[in-house]
Structure formats: C-alpha cells, structure tokens
Amino acid sequence: MTKKYLLIIWVCLQYNAYAQQNIFVIPDSLSTKSYEYFSNNILYEEKDSINERLYAQSWLAKAKREKNFGQMTQSYKALIYTSDNKLQLKYADSMLTAAKRTADMELIGSVYMTKGIVQYDLKEHMNALDSYLMADEYISKTNNHYLIYKVKYVIAQVKYYLGFYDEATTLFQECVNYFKEKNDRAYLNSLHSLGLCYSRTSKYKLCSQINQTGLSEGLRLKNLEMEPYFIHSEGVNQYFKHNYADAIKKLTKTLPVVIDNKDFINETTAYFYIGKSYWAQKLQEKALPYLKKIDEAFQKQKYIRPHLREAYEILIDYYQQRNDKVLELYYVKALLEVDQVLLKDYKYLSGKIHKEYDTKKLLERQRNIEQYWTVVACIIITIMTAIIVVLVLRHYKNKRLFEELMNRKPETPQSLVSNNTGKETELDINPEVIAAILKNLEKFERNKKYLEKDMSLAKMASLLNTNVKYASKIIARYRNKGTVDYITHLKIDHIIELLKNENKYRNYTNKALGEESGFGSTQIFTRAFNNRTGLSPTYFISKLKSQQH
C-alpha cells in the first residue's frame, strides 16, 4: 500500500514538473516498454486518470526521443482523452503539428477531426467546423471510407445544429447504412441522430420507428450506452405528437443519466420539453421551473441551441401578462444576449458550411462527370450482357422442361401402389380398412372428384368413407404425397393431358383453365402449374401451338 501511495505522489510530482518545465522523465519500470504496450494500457475510460496519463506521457517521451512523429501523434491523442478541458486544446495543437510532420494525408485528416471534436465539446462551434472542413479536405483524398463517413457524421451534426434537417437526414442515413456493419456505437449514434432529424421535420412516425430500432439494435449488439438517448429522443417526439404525459415520463426518466454524463445539452432539452409539455396541459406553475432552467444553463455555459430560445419568449409573455416588470425585463435582456450568441455562431456556421462544404462537394461531382458516363456505359453493357445470358439459359431450360413434360406419362394408382407393397402393417390400420379406402380412392381418381373446388382433406375423407387421420395416412403411403400436393398434382396433370390432346383448351385463358381444374383463383393455378412443371401455362401452350404448324 505504501508503494502505491509513493507511486501516485511521484506521478503527481512528475506531472507538475512537466506543466512547469515541459520536461518528463520516463520511469524505469516503463523505459523499455513498446508503443503497443502504451497503446493497450490506455483505455480512455476516465478523465484525469493518473495511471493512464503516466502511460501517455511515457509514450510521448519515447516517441520524442526516437523522433517518431506518427507515435507522437497517437500519444498526444491519448493525452487529450486523459486530461481535463484546459489541456485538451493544447495537446490537440501539438498532435496536429506532429501529424503534419508525417505528411500522411489520412493521419492529418483524422487529427483535424479529433481537434474538431474537442472544439465541439468545448462549444467552440466555429472553430470545430473549420477543423471538420480541413479534415474533409485531407480525408477526401484518401480511400479510407471509415474516416470519410466519420467526417460525414460530424458535418451532419453541424447541419442539424443549424437547422438544415433534410441535408443532415441524408448524411445520417448514409452513416447508418455504412456503420451498421463497421462500428456498433457509431451505428447507434447515427440512428439516434437520424431519429432527431425525422422529429424535426415532422416525420414523427419515422422517428418512433428509428428510436425503437435503436433500442432493439442496442439489445442485439449488447450495447446499452445509447438506450437512454433513444428514450430521450422519443420523449421529445411524443411532445410533438401531443402525448404530453408520455413525453414528461420518458424525459424525466432519462434526466439522471444525462446529468450524470454531464450532457448539459440534452439536459436542457429535456427541461425545455418537460416544461412545454406541462405548459400545453395548462399546468403553468409546473412548467415554469423547467423553462427557467434553460436560462440558468445559458448563464452558466453561455451556450444555447436555437430551438431553446422559445423558452424566453414564453417566460416574457407570462410575466408581461402578470405585470411583473422586473422578471419580464430580466428575460428580455437575457433573450437579447441569447440572440447575440446565436447570431454570431449561427451566421458564421451557416455561411461556412454552405460555401466551403457543399460547394466543395459539387466541385468534386463536376470533376467526376466525365468518368460518370463511362461508368454508366460499362454498367449498361454489363447488365445487357447478363440479361441476354439469363434469357438464353432460360430458353434452353424451358425447352428441356417442355420436352420432359411431353414425354412424361401420367402417374397411375398402380405405379404408386407397386412401390408400397408390404407396408400395410406399418400404418397400424386394419388391412381390410386399407383395402376399402384404396378402392374408394381409385374411384375418387377415376371420377375426377379432385376437380371439385374447395376440395379439402375433410371433404376427401368423407368421399373415401373414412376419417381425416386415415385418409391422410393412406394418401401419404400409397400416393407418396401430402394431401394438398396430391390433389394439386392431380388437377395440374389433368390440365396437362387436356392441353396435350385437345386443341380447344389451348385457346383457354389461364383463368378458364384454373376454373376447369377446380382452382380457387388464377394466381393459385399458375403458381401450382409452375411448381409442378417448372413452366408457366402460357409458355407451355405457346410451345404446343408452335408444334401444330
């Protein structure tokens, strides 16, 4: 235990020395460790973890000593995720400097994206978007689809924040499709964001479906981290569907989780829609504390989402109606401050994302237009070739099946019985009863009773003068078929013989042929004919007619 405390004190002293002098000495116990060792021992699970920060500092020191800029980049990334907010941007800048020394486009793009994420978490949205756009600039020149879709995801987040929901929806849909097989958490995050977009565009049914999919997929993937966020999203969605009690219930349920996660954006969003749900139910006194929390969060964080500003409008109107000039004036001034923040942030982001991101995508499409028609031509040729091959193969297959069908003899009771000699004892039925049923079955076939519509096992059993159980056993044993197949095959074989031998039936429609053979509908008849012969009735008849000439 004493050794453990000494290690912690030593690490703290070393970290303090680094902060003051930018000097770090790798402890002897870690001096011979590999880069892989450091990477594997940093789990990114807890901020300000002393042990993990020690590994990250040792990793960085080793990389600096060996002038390995790629490893320096990775170690700075580890320091970002093991340090508090004050140091994260400093390490992000150092990480970017190291990455640029590698001249690796993929690595540099990835680092810009990491820096953007740090800036986004710190609510520096203008700087974050600049970093995302730089990430896109580098990563779009690589073949790393995973990183390309990560950039799409963060750009979509900015579009969602700006209120460009249709554009964000398209990007999030692409991310859902891509990440589904690549990364469970990214897949669930994309589903969640897609649901939010649907809710914002009044597609509430789709939002509910996405939220339910997210919950089900989380269970399937054994990843429940996003579960409260899907419930949170559905709570907001229920507000828009005017199910206010359910909205309050779901959002209240998720509040402890988002508060524990220090997710003040979703915390304030929950307060806002709980407040609005009470307000919609004319429970104003219950609504006010929740709506006021929007301003409390803004005064603390100096950050707000555009849709939350409505809380101020509600509060201003409320206190105006009650002639409370003090509170009315307070919320008017607060709203003016909110609008200044939104105008500055929103205007910059809106112009930037359309001018630099969307224009860039259009230019890329323009550069690829010459290749487009070549690709289209190749695809068309390939498809046409495949169609021709399929048609040729189908022609020869149908020709072979037709010849087999023309040469096939109808099944007779005698041919079927000959294969079942000596099986009477296996049925556990009196041989005399079997003989009587078989005699009635031959009569049933000879009189073509199977052509009656709605012929069922119960109806057959009655005609055979027996019960359903015995009838099905006898048919299975002596006709080698289930009852449905037995009746269906008799009907189809009957039609085949008519078509072969009597020209007039070749002019019948499929509907008339189906009625002639006792089928309930044309569709059932054509499907049964195809299953029995491998051919359509139309093809079979056309081949028969062609043989007449």
Automatic annotation (TrEMBL):
- Segments passing through the bilayer: 372-393
Question: Sorted alphabetically, which InterPro entries does this protein's record hold?
Answer: HTH_AraC, TPR-like_helical_dom_sf
- Presence of keyword Coiled coil: no
HTH araC/xylS-type domain location is 431-543
| Entry keywords, A to Z | Membrane, Transmembrane, Transmembrane helix
A GO molecular function term, named singly, is: DNA-binding transcription factor activity
Q: What is this protein called?
A: AraC family transcriptional regulator
Q: Which organism is it from?
A: Flavobacterium psychrolimnae
The major lineage groups are: Bacteria, Pseudomonadati, Bacteroidota, Flavobacteriia, Flavobacteriales
